[in-house]
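Anyone able to model this chain together with NAP?
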Amino acid sequence: MFQSLDDKFELCNGVQVPCIGFGTWQIPNDTALESAVASAVQLGYRQFDTAQIYANAGAIGRAVHNSGLPRESFFITSKVWGSSRTYDGVMTAFEETLGQLKTPYLDLFLIHWPAAQGEPMIWQSQNAGTWRALEDLYDQGRVRAIGVSNFLPHHLVPLLARARIRPMVNQLELHPGYPQFAAVNFCFKHGIAVQAWSPLGRGGLLRNPLLNEIAAKHGVSPAQIALRWCLQHGFLPIAKALDMQHQKQNLDVFGFALDLTDMQRLDEMPQTAFSGLHPDTVTF
Ligand SMILES: NC(=O)c1ccc[n+]([C@@H]2O[C@H](COP(=O)([O-])OP(=O)(O)OC[C@H]3O[C@@H](n4cnc5c(N)ncnc54)[C@H](OP(=O)(O)O)[C@@H]3O)[C@@H](O)[C@H]2O)c1
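re: yes, here you go
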């Protein structure tokens, strides 16, 4: 169990991931993002999550560079979008991302969505071709770990059957009210680490009465409850916060613990704050 912000999660290949990440979805590539990342770095965040589709890697790269800290202090993730889901498409997207971040390597590169529409033979073989590019980047030392995002067991099984290197990470929507335990258990059984996206349900979860009740009991905020729930399950939460007080609060999750009853009630709460983005029904 994580005891402090400095604690790391060790992936199956030995790479260490800072236990709390900072998300950047829907933050434009501008000075607001640059200063949000700069304040996050000052507060102690070292893990940053971006994606080809977010089109904001430049601001993250500038903030990381301007921090004056060595590149090795950071853990930077990006994800390849569906429009680049071919071998050559991945290679081009990867080089573009490195150019925007102004870094010689990535810490983690993910296939963003399984793009599981239409004939299974087609999307499964597209995913296998995409994965081969990630494997080659890993072999070349251009990326320290590779993985997937939004892959459920029925997307992972065909990928694992053809993979030379197993995914090290699966990034899933995970929060109280959307725990996706079947996918999580499958990942843990196969040694795949789990990152939690939208751990605060994009803010929507924070008004929930159960989270507020448990938060009041521990004298913390509902956001801290949702993040603590992730950590106690062994998921690595990636929360987004532009507000510096939110950024600070989201790191302050090591001074209390949820008891078994709290965990069980959060595990069993009805579906709440689901994004609506299911990998079998999205059109990307
Ligand atoms: N792999 C994927 O397909 C995928 C999909 C979606 C997201 N993600 C990743 O996951 C990250 C996080 O998800 P998200 O951005 O959807 O949402 P989120 O982290 O669940 O929630 C962000 C919202 O919560 C607010 N907030 C943050 N901390 C708070 C606090 N302590 N108290 C009250 N409000 C707080 C933020 O407000 P302020 O900004 O005003 O502070 C923002 O409105 C993304 O940014 C992205 O990096 C990945």
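The chain has a mean pLDDT of 97.
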